[in-house]
Amino acid sequence: MKRYNLSEIMRTAHRTYKYVGKKQGKTFGEVLKSTWRLAKLDVARQEADAKRKAEEEKRQEALKSSKPAEVVRYNFIGEIYNRNSRGYMSSQYCGD
Predict the structure, then answer these.
(1) pLDDT tens digit string along 42-95?
(2) φ, ψ for residue 27, nearest 5 deg
């Protein structure tokens, strides 16, 4: 079961009721209910942030432990012009 800071929730509810709730015509119960909802959402957000941070750290560790891929270079000119394809004045003309 999650533990909430009841003092902080009540303090926030009183402050919200004093400065906003009265002007909007809300009762203290409505303000307290919305404050509880915000506190629960805040706890859920903190859990999601912790989970996301753990996944990010796991991903970073995987990146650090892996070695970079080798770069494969391919000789495209050797594919088109082999050693025997010499033209006029020893140029490497294909004859297209």
Answers:
(1) 999 999 999 999 999 999 998 888 888 888 887 777 666 666 666 666 666 556
(2) -85, 165
The residues near 38 (Cβ < 8 Å, ≥ 6 apart) are 12
d(CA 42, CA 54): 18
Q: Cβ of 32: how many Cβ atoms within 10 Å?
A: 19
Whether 12 contacts 35, CB under 8 Å = yes
C-alpha span between 13 and 30 (Å, rounded): 9
Query: What whole-number distance in Å separates Cα of residue 30 and Cα of residue 36?
Result: 10
Residues in the chain: 96
Written as six digits, the tokens of 72 are 């494969």
Distance CA(36)–CA(42), nearest Å, equals 10
Task: Identify the H or E element spanning 75.
Answer: none
Q: How far apart are CA 92 and CA 89, in angstroms?
A: 9
Contact 92, 86 (CB under 8 A): yes
